[in-house]
Design brief:
Helix content is about 35%, strand content about 15%. By secondary structure, it is α/β, with parallel strands linked by helices. Strands 7-6-5-4-3-2-1-8-9 form a nine-stranded mixed beta sheet. The chain has a two-stranded parallel sheet with strand order 10-11. Strand 6, helix 10 and strand 7 form a beta-alpha-beta unit.
Length: about 350
């Protein structure tokens, strides 16, 4: 690949060039993100958990705790949602779950995502990502695949996934996706206990060498780790990740500046999450619903999100992973509850920039 010595800027330029070549109309939308950000207009990547169906039972997963609701996403509902997203100028969607490669009918879901209007990515455990499947996904309009790797130690990854062989399947999936022309992202969760280890560095080196991106997600005190604040990363962990990023730019944390934009914590402004039941969350880890697409428009939900002080103001670090005050004061409100809870149960008048009516 010849990417071992690429700088962060060279990596970003290569990604933009690929998008311009493959989806020029989407590329033009992406170019407007910086101006929209400067103007305070939210342009979030929408993470869409179409279903919670999955073949694995990962120890840290919180998806199974979602409370079922009468309405569920369908291709028809998804098409209406992506029409709204396009009208608002949004340009990036991520399909997650659950395990998307188990979703049916996958071709109809992709049609509803309107690949010609959005940069499309997918989060997967890689279990079913053969070369044939990767080529099919590319033909259907997928641009990027995000494959989970919990640890560079094979035994630790398999243990967390409760599936012997999961590590090797993920490894094969990385290269199958790359050969099919998909951009490859290795997704990993780091805790305070495993962040500052040689395994994190080796994973970053592996990604840099092979032309992958390493997307580091900080552990959150939710799911199986609910209330266990000892797993949360601290300032020294963040310093370690920044220093590793400076020497190995393939490693990325979502609060690090990208493409010349310092977003800090991107809740609402740069990312939102939609559950299988239509609830919109400020991010996948903050189980507080800002509204439901079966009841309100996406525009109204985003407006509400931007009126909440914590999501409208700049935060240099991750609210859900490092801000102990936000975690203790707000995220603790959904501990032990059916999730997601409503914004009405999480925030009071003092949390709003403008009075909520």
């Amino acid at each position: 690949m010849g990417t071992e010595n690429w700088t962060e800027k060279e990596m970003e330029q290569a990604k933009r060039a690929k998008l311009k070549r493959e989806k020029p109309a989407v590329y033009e939308k992406v170019l407007k993100i910086a101006d929209r950000h400067a103007a305070g207009i939210p342009t979030p990547i929408v993470d869409i958990a179409y279903s919670t169906v999955c073949n694995l039972k990962c120890l840290h997963c919180s998806a199974r705790r979602l409370t079922p609701k009468p309405h569920k996403l369908t291709p028809e509902v998804l098409k209406d949602f992506t029409d709204q997203a396009d009208a608002l100028g949004l340009c990036q969607l991520n399909l997650s779950g659950g395990e998307p490669l188990l979703f049916k009918p996958l071709d109809k879901i992709f049609e509803a995502l309107q690949p010609d209007k959005f940069h499309l990515s997918m989060s997967s455990n890689g279990h079913f990502l053969t070369g044939e499947m990767a080529r099919k996904l590319k033909k259907m309009g997928l641009d990027k695949i995000k494959i989970s790797l919990d640890d560079f130690d094979e035994a630790l990854h398999d243990a967390n996934r409760c599936d012997p062989g999961a590590y090797q399947k993920a490894m094969k999936a990385f290269f199958a996706a790359q050969e099919a022309g998909l951009s490859v992202v290795v997704q990993t969760v780091v805790t305070h206990q495993n962040c500052r280890t040689s395994r994190t560095v080796k994973m970053a080196e592996f990604c840099q060498k092979n032309g992958f991106t390493l997307d580091v997600m900080l552990a959150k005190a939710i799911g199986a780790w609910e209330g266990k604040h000892e797993v949360l990363c601290d300032g020294n962990d963040l310093k370690f990740l920044k220093e590793t990023h400076d020497s190995i730019p393939a490693l990325h944390l979502d609060t690090f500046p990208t493409y010349g934009i310092d977003r800090g914590c991107g809740t609402v402004d740069s990312t939102i999450h939609m559950t299988p039941y239509g609830d919109i969350l400020p991010c996948v880890f903050i189980h507080i619903s800002l509204g439901n697409i079966f009841e309100e428009s996406l525009a109204d939900i985003l407006k509400r999100g931007k009126s909440i002080r914590h999501f409208a103001e700049y935060h240099p670090c991750c609210l859900s992973g490092m801000d102990r005050n936000f975690i203790s004061k707000y995220m603790s409100k959904f501990y032990g509850k059916e999730i997601p809870i409503s914004w009405k149960d999480a925030f009071t008048e003092e949390d709003f920039i403008h009075e909520q009516k």
